């Protein structure tokens, strides 16, 4: 094919092609541009709406704080909250209702009932076992003592064991009941006696000769600290580790009731018990203490013990020696607190609810901490009563009137 033959052939081929419709192409391109602009407009409107919503939320938070968005750092204030009366050594303190007014206080319901007294009829523990002990009292029978156990259903059982006096008095220690509420321990001359309320089994564990007066359970329910003046032992009453001896001498104290686990409060310090049988300083504690009374009892977040104070300028007294309950926090997020047992009224306490009992002076040694009802309520024995001090609200309630002598409480108090 020659060069001059190509142009005619191209003209013939172009004649056979359809003519393009430029109007249709322009219309399609216009529709595409219109849709793109509509999408951009819708997205812009949505973006503006989101920005306005964020701005409105920010304004609302700025006016009301962040409580609606972030959880509070501390629990809400109880409706019956009672403000502290002031501070002692930098610790908030409350003043307890005066002696003689206990009957007028609101009551905390427990298996102890409104008045705790010796039962008229009691069944043998072997025939009426208890799954959890709420309280223990002793009945004098000649020269011996017999333990009566109160269950969480308010029923009584008597253990078939005769207990000898210790230090010329009752062998009942305020720390007698195990943490699970099943076993009760009693110090005896040359031995430790335990009563399993769930099986009625009575066991004895030999001790060296000594004047043992106090018992305190470890949290594992397997070991007990038994103490007398200047001497103390850890007794294995359950399953121990491989090669663990049944009896271990540990650090003692001149005050037998100071030997407690897992913590003990002493003048100037909060101490933690170690598996080595010694205590280590957990933190300083500066209080105007003349002497400590009773055992230290621990909960999940705090420990409590009663003290007799020197004169307190913050709580002037004329007729009584100041006493107080120190509830010391073991968690940094909670504050320690004090409850001061104040002066009696002159005559009988009078309130709109009626008249209380004749007032009296709470002498040093009359009162002690008996344990914890729960994480926030400390149980305190005063003359003739058991009271509950609510650490969250500051309120004090009566638990029961006492018509018995010495008393030990257990976890069966709780539902």
Automatic annotation (TrEMBL):
It comes from Kribbella rubisoli. The chain crosses the membrane at residues 40-59. Keywords: Membrane, Transmembrane, Transmembrane helix. This is WD40 repeat domain-containing protein. It comes from the Bacteria.
């Amino acid at each position: 094919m020659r060069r001059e033959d190509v142009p005619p052939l191209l003209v013939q081929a172009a004649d056979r092609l359809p003519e393009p419709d430029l109007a249709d192409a322009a219309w399609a391109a216009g529709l595409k541009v219109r849709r793109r602009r509509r999408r951009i407009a819708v997205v812009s409107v949505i973006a503006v709406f989101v920005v306005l919503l964020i701005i409105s939320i920010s304004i609302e938070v700025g006016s009301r704080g962040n409580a609606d968005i972030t959880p509070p750092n501390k629990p809400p204030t109880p409706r019956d909250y009672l403000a502290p009366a002031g501070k002692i050594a930098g610790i908030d303190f409350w003043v307890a209702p005066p002696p003689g007014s206990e009957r007028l206080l609101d009551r905390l319901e427990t298996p102890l009932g409104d008045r705790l007294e010796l039962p008229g009829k009691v069944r043998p523990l072997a025939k009426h076992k208890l799954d959890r002990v709420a309280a223990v009292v002793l009945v004098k029978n000649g020269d011996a003592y017999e333990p009566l156990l109160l269950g969480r259903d308010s029923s009584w059982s008597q253990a078939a064991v005769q207990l000898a006096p210790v230090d010329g008095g009752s062998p009942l220690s305020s720390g007698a009941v195990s943490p699970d509420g099943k076993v009760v321990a009693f110090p005896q001359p040359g031995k430790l006696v335990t009563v399993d309320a769930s099986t009625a089994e009575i066991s004895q564990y030999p001790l060296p000769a000594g004047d043992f007066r106090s018992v305190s359970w470890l949290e594992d329910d397997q070991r007990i600290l038994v103490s007398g003046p200047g001497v103390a032992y850890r007794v294995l009453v359950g399953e121990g580790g491989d090669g663990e001896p049944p009896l271990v001498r540990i650090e003692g104290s001149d005050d037998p009731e100071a030997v407690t686990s897992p913590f003990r409060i002493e003048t100037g310090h909060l101490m933690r018990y170690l598996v080595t049988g010694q205590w280590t300083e957990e933190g300083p504690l500066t209080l105007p203490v003349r002497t400590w009374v009773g055992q230290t009892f621990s909960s999940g977040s705090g420990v409590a013990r009663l003290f007799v104070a020197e004169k307190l300028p913050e709580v002037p007294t004329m007729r009584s020696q100041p006493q107080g309950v120190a509830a010391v926090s073991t968690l940094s997020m909670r504050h320690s607190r004090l409850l001061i047992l104040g002066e009696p009224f002159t005559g009988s306490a009078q309130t709109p609810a009626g008249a209380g009992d004749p007032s009296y002076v709470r002498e040093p040694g009359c009162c002690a901490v008996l344990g914890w009802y729960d994480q926030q309520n400390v149980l305190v024995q005063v003359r003739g009563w058991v009271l509950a001090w609510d650490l969250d609200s500051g309120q004090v309630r009566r638990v029961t009137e006492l018509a018995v002598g010495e008393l030990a409480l257990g976890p069966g108090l709780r539902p």
